[in-house]
Specification:
Blueprint: E1 2-3, E2 6-7, E3 21-24, E4 49-53, E5 62-70, H1 75-79, E6 92-99, E7 109-112, E8 119-123, E9 134-135, H2 153-166, E10 173-177, H3 184-193, E11 197-202, H4 205-214, E12 218-221, H5 230-237, E13 242-247, H6 251-258, E14 261-269, H7 287-292, E15 296-299, H8 309-321, E16 329-333, H9 338-346, E17 353-357
Parallel strand pairs: 10-11, 10-13, 11-12, 13-14, 14-15, 16-17
Antiparallel strand pairs: 1-8, 2-4, 3-4, 5-6, 5-8, 5-17, 6-7, 7-9
Helix pairs in contact: 2-3, 2-8
């Protein structure tokens, strides 16, 4: 997807209906620790929020007005390679307010990787095929914001990343790190649907309590366990060892889980958020474990299943309707609060999916 917009000034171009849009460049949010970070929330320069004008729609283009925007862990490592002044990447649920594209009529609700901006002029035929915008299917009585969560990228990350790579079997033990986040909380519930015993690792007693409400069999608040005692805590929670591990965090937690994997164990690596906020942890070389326990570990980007995207959304929606899959959102109000919501998510301030309502 390629959105044409003029940044900051363009008196010669007509603004589209609803005028210009705001954008956010958050380069400083991807450098150094996130805790205590004060980030720009206003102004008009290249390091804060600014105004940009949109030209009128051309053939096969439409204008999307943001309704909900997403903040996700992946944004931090991805943005580290972008030049200063780049608008923050990210997905949003938006309304089509003007259109010359037959598949995106005015009034439609769409998902698109439009970045942190309030209005976007879109040509959906441009850009990579696996990241083009799409009209959201009906969600029934559920909010459109779920298109950023359980009925969007995080939901499909859980559905495909767990089922395709871990291939869980009934009665097996599954461990999920980052278990109270948008993806981890869904992975644990899907594992329960498949008949597994599930251990969730999270960062507060409240989050662990919520996971038990969702049906997790055991939980560990890693903030209440010293690093050298974590392996013992895990052994108590999973006395029969671990068959499947869905890894969102990396670091010493993953080191401990790998040490307790059963023969032929499977590991799906979704993220390494422990390394996003601090120096990379030094851990023991796991190669011997992979050889002698015949483990299989695989990392993934969820767009590898782009051609099956709606399959995951339909299945997760069915499980929601059946009462087998529950979700929670942490909603922040106001486009100007995007930086604060982003930092809060990186430091564990959210339960479930973190979204910003424009």
């Amino acid at each position: 997807m390629r959105a044409r917009a003029l940044c900051l000034v363009s008196k010669k171009k007509k603004a589209v209906q609803n005028g210009g849009g705001q954008k956010v460049d958050l380069r400083e949010a991807v450098r150094g620790p996130a805790e205590g970070r004060k980030l720009p929330t206003g102004g008009g320069n290249a390091t804060g929020t600014g105004r940009e004008w949109l030209v009128e729609t051309g053939q096969n283009e439409f204008v999307a007005e943001a309704v909900f925007l997403s903040v996700d862990p992946y944004m931090r490592p991805y943005m580290a390679s972008y030049p200063a002044g780049t608008v923050m990447i990210g997905g949003q649920v938006a309304k089509v307010t003007a259109s010359r594209h037959p598949q995106f009529p005015v009034g439609a609700t769409v998902f698109g990787n439009f970045g942190w901006r309030t209005h976007t002029l879109v040509n959906p035929e441009q850009g990579a095929a696996d990241s083009r915008p799409y009209v959201l299917p009906p969600f029934g009585a559920h909010p459109a914001s779920l298109g950023l969560g359980v009925l969007g990228m995080p939901g499909n990350t859980a559905y495909f990343g767990f089922l395709e790579l871990c291939q869980p079997k009934q009665g097996e033990t599954v461990v999920v790190s980052g278990a109270a986040g948008a993806v981890g909380s869904l992975v644990g519930q899907i594992a329960k649907i498949k008949g597994c015993r599930v251990v969730g690792i999270a960062g507060s007693d409240d989050k662990c309590g919520w996971l038990r409400e969702l049906g997790f069999d055991a939980t560990i608040n890693y903030r209440q366990v010293e690093r050298d005692a974590f392996a013992d805590a895990l052994r108590a929670a999973a006395p029969g060892g671990v068959d499947c591990y869905f890894d969102n965090v990396g670091g010493y937690i993953s080191e401990a889980v790998l040490g307790q994997m059963n023969l032929y164990g499977r590991i799906s690596v979704c993220g390494t958020i422990s390394n996003y906020n601090a120096e990379r942890a030094q851990v023991a070389d796991p190669q011997r474990l992979f050889v002698f326990k015949q483990l299989r570990q695989e990392g993934f980007i969820v767009t590898r299943w782009a051609k099956r995207w709606m399959e995951g959304i339909r299945q997760n929606l069915q499980w929601i309707e059946e009462g087998r899959l529950r979700y929670q959102e942490t909603v922040t109000d106001g486009f100007e609060q995007m930086p604060a919501a982003f930092v809060s998510m990186l430091t564990g301030g959210n339960t479930g999916k973190a979204v910003v309502k424009v």
